[in-house]
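Each letter names a residue; the fold follows as tokens. Both lines appear below:
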Amino acid sequence: MIGGYGPLIAVVAVLLGSIGSFAYGISTGEDRCTARGTRDEQIRQRTFEDAQKGTANAIAQIEIKHTTIHAAVEREVRTRVEYRTCVHAPDVVRGINAALSGRPDAPDPGKLPAGTTPAR
């Protein structure tokens, strides 16, 4: 009776063994992931606590000093060139004013510019 079903029983046994090994591997993988997550959480917690301790120590070592600073006042001397003493002839001043205003300079009423008097 077993003779005809022998190969079928062998195939089923191998198949069941493979399924069992697969299930065992999955549960082992899940355990590894859980263990890795737990380990990562412990490392994070330890790092956080160490950082807190380091920060607290650094803050405790700060020395507060109150200092009043007395210093001489520094003054800057600036020179500005002024042209008060610069004297121009009236014709030159009129020419400069005409150039700045953009309007031609007209001579005073009743006067002719020098050099335009007719010869007699």
In short: The helical segments are 2-60, 90-101. The mean pLDDT is 78.
